[in-house]
Specification:
The chain has 79 residues and is mainly α. 78% of the residues lie in helices and 0% in strands. The protein has a domain at 24-73. The longest helix is centred in the middle third of the chain and has 51 residues, at 11-61. The chain is rod-shaped, with a radius of gyration of 33 Å.
């Protein structure tokens, strides 16, 4: 013989249970959003550091090219 357990909540208790559930959901959503935000921030910092390293390496390799281009543009133009 099967017994069926049914829970009947009063409207007041049901409202409390729903409020508690919604609060728990908001907390979990907030934690998930915080984790995603921190991961995105870390990714941006890593990309910025990588690009800065590449830019500095490029500038270290090509300083003569820039100086020659500047020197050529400083020559007076005759009309």
């Amino acid at each position: 013989m099967e017994t069926e357990l049914t829970l009947t909540l009063s409207p007041k208790n049901r409202a409390r249970a729903e409020a508690a559930f919604k609060k728990l959901q908001r907390t979990q959503d907030g934690e998930k959003a915080k984790t995603e935000y921190e991961a995105e921030s870390q990714s941006v910092r890593e990309k910025t550091a990588r690009l800065r390293t590449l830019r500095l390496a490029k500038e270290a390799i090509e300083p003569r090219v820039k100086k020659q281009a500047i020197a050529a543009s400083d020559k007076p133009v005759r009309y």
